[in-house]
Write a structure and sequence with these properties.
Largest sheet: 8 strands, mixed
Helix content: 25-40%
Shape: flat
Distance between the termini: 208 Å
Number of strands: 12
Order of helices and strands: HHHHHHHHEEHEEHHEEHEHEHEEEEH
Strand order of the largest sheet: 4-3-2-1-12-11-10-9
Number of helices: 15
Length: about 525
């Protein structure tokens, strides 16, 4: 038995007991390592153990090739799938950019108005909308214009303008660049009688302002009785009526296609005269003030309107014979007062080679010239009424001013060959759009007086456009005019000039002379008294 029990017992130094002792620390190390891997991150609250399990699961599920090379990318994808933002999306909403806002505005341009098309039915009315893609195609050959994407947006914006206003004619006048944003300009004419209501509202507003000014002046006269100077400012030159002269056309502007079209105000002669004396860049804000010397009577909308009219009068041209005067009006009106013309139905077109003739005799101006007075039609200043003079003697003494001579400008449809040169520089440059294929080229006219003004002509088609800053060419750098000299407070004369003090000798001589004069006067009086007594 002893031998059996001894055989069953295992000595303490056998391999079995040694394995048990060696496995205990390894298992502890494994548990420690697993505990370390299960430790969560402070930032993401994710532990490495679960993350590796998810990555390996993704690898076994997808079984991609070259796992070793993309293991880091798989790890990033697993992390991205587990990411959840703790921020409140309502409070931390990112503001939309200007591009997104503009895109939403322009989205309406591309919406198809199916209801309007169904309502119109078969009765389609001729639309004043121009075929802008065709016109821009010709200008593109001349290297002028805008991108095709912007052209299509402007075309749809013009369609929106025609749909919202009762217009008879409409065309793209051009684009004026600004420091903050640009102006897209559309030239239009209302149908007859459609704009009368707006004119009446404007006149009522002007009359209300005048009444207020008169009331204020009357109150000031009652309160203040101090003498006032006799100077009276020269009479104000009135603006020309709508649909005539400088206000013949109506202009709409917007900064970007899709934005609302804004109608520019009517222009006055004072604004035209002031615009000729200053040079300002547009800002793109119609309400921006015009800070300049001489001061400009208005804001940027008035200055923009003045520049548009000046550019139109100098650069709007058409082929000779395309327009003609009405025969009935020719008998009634003189050449200098003609305002209206009509298309020539018998116009057959001018060959392109003649349109680029250096003599420039085949192009004419079809917009009236603006006189130095600021109007297209001369206006005689109103003379002072007789009631303004207080006495008849003052009226006789006051010299009547000479009547100013009427200003006369070139009549309508005058050839551009008569335009004035600028220090030897021709006012116009004529060229072909392509010298490689001249038989299919078009005639291109470029203004040197107003850089940015172009016109094209081919067969029976022509068009004008302006793309520039709205500045007239000047051979010299612009220099603001100097302010006038300071006005004198009073006229300087001998009666108010301080004299030098006399010397003592001069004083003695003066006193002696005065004494002699007094003695002589007394002798004469005594002699007269003696004669009276004798009588």
């Amino acid at each position: 038995m002893a031998s059996t029990e001894g055989a069953n017992k295992t000595p303490s130094g056998t391999p079995q007991n040694n394995n048990k002792l060696n496995n205990a620390p390894r298992e502890q190390d494994f548990l420690n390592a697993k505990a370390f891997l299960l430790k969560s991150s402070i930032k993401s609250n994710i532990n490495l153990y679960d993350h590796l399990s998810n990555v390996l699961t993704k690898v076994l599920d997808e079984r991609p090739e070259n796992v070793v090379d993309i293991f880091e990318d798989l790890s990033k994808d697993v992390k991205k799938s587990k990411f959840t933002s703790q921020a409140d999306t309502i409070l931390d909403k990112v503001d939309r950019s200007e591009e997104v806002v503009l895109a939403e505005i322009q989205k309406t341009l591309f919406e198809n108005q199916e209801e309007a098309e169904h309502d119109a039915g078969e009765d389609e009315v001729e639309t004043p909308l121009p075929n802008l893609p065709e016109l821009m195609f010709y200008f593109e050959q001349a290297g002028v214009g805008v991108s095709r994407e912007e052209m299509m947006k402007i075309f749809l914006a013009l369609k929106q303008l025609v749909d919202n206003y009762p217009l008879q004619t409409c065309r793209l006048w051009g684009k004026i660049y600004g420091t903050e944003s640009n102006y897209i300009v559309a030239e239009a004419e209302y149908r007859e009688g459609e704009e009368e209501e707006e004119e009446e509202e404007e006149h009522e507003a002007e009359e209300a302002d005048l009444d207020k000014e008169e009331e204020e002046e009357g109150e000031e006269q009652e309160e203040d009785d101090t003498p006032k100077p006799d100077f009276k400012p020269p009479p104000v030159i009135p603006r020309e009526d709508n649909r005539s002269g400088t206000n013949k056309k109506t202009y709409f502007v917007c900064n970007e296609p899709g934005q609302p079209w804004i109608k520019l105000p009517l222009i006055t002669p004072a604004q035209v005269v002031a615009a000729r004396q200053i040079k300002k860049f547009m800002t793109g804000n119609l309400d921006a003030p015009i800070i300049s010397y001489p001061p400009f009577p208005g804001n940027e909308s008035n200055y923009l309107r003045a520049q548009i009219q000046r550019i139109s009068a100098g650069t709007q041209i058409s082929p000779l014979g395309y327009y003609q005067f009405d025969e009935e009006e020719e008998e009634e009106e003189d050449e200098g007062t003609r305002e209206n013309f009509m298309e020539n139905p018998d116009y057959e077109g001018i060959p392109v080679k003649d349109l680029i003739d250096p003599t420039l005799s085949n192009w004419v101006h079809h917009v009236q010239h603006i006189l130095p007075q600021g109007r297209c039609q001369w206006f005689a200043p109103i003379q002072q009424a007789e009631d303004d003079f207080e006495d008849e003697e003052e009226e006789e003494e006051r010299e009547e001013p000479d009547e100013p001579e009427p200003e006369i400008g070139p009549p309508l449809l005058t050839p551009i060959s008569e335009d004035v040169e600028i220090e030897g520089i021709q006012p116009w440059s004529a060229r072909l759009s392509s010298m490689l294929v001249p038989q299919y080229a078009i005639a291109v006219m470029q203004s040197n007086l107003w850089p940015g003004a172009f016109a094209f002509g081919t067969e029976k088609k022509f068009e004008n456009v302006y793309m520039g800053y709205g500045h007239k060419y000047s051979p010299d750098n612009y220099s603001p005019p100097a302010p006038p000299p300071v006005q004198e407070e009073y006229p300087s004369g001998p009666e108010i000039t301080e004299t030098e003090d006399p010397t003592p000798e001069e004083e003695m001589a003066l006193r002696a002379a005065q004494q002699e004069a007094m003695d002589a006067a007394e002798e004469i009086e005594d002699a007269e008294e003696d004669e009276e007594e004798d009588d």
